[in-house]
């Protein structure tokens, strides 16, 4: 399944707690879209969030955010992973 | 050790091969800076790269890129990981 990294630049700070709640809503919503949110990274001070997911399309990935909590990504990238 | 996600927006496309070579240079350079590059994600068409690393500081992380291949990040974020 294609892999996507999305970015949210909130401008103001954000707490891990708030993002964890939004992520829990994503997990509760994703199955109906065929999406699997894998992990995320948060810079609390900068209000920057990165979400990594497997999804059939970028639209499907963003629909999960929209349905779960309304905080859609600023950008979403179709990525390949290396290590 | 602190965790950082950096972003490179190259504008033009980039190949996984080229990024893999740069990453190999990072791995060969990182020990002297006390840095551990963990994994990375690439959108070849958009020329967008995300690098995740453990480092004592953002400066140390960026110094690895500078010494290894000169392609320093556009931005670097001090992140916490969730899943």
From TrEMBL, chains A, B:
Descriptive protein name: Gualylate cyclase
Species assigned in the record: Knoellia sinensis KCTC 19936
Domain of life: Bacteria
Pfam families (alphabetical): SCO4226-like
InterPro entries: SCO4226, SCO4226-like
């Amino acid at each position: 399944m294609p892999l996507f990294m999305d970015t949210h630049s909130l401008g103001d700070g954000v707490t891990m707690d708030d993002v964890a709640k939004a992520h829990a809503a994503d997990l509760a919503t994703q199955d109906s879209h065929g999406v699997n949110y894998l992990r995320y990274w948060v810079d609390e001070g900068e209000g920057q969030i990165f979400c990594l997911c497997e999804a059939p399309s970028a639209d499907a990935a963003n629909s999960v955010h929209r349905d779960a909590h309304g905080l859609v990504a600023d950008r979403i990238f179709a990525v390949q992973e290396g290590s």
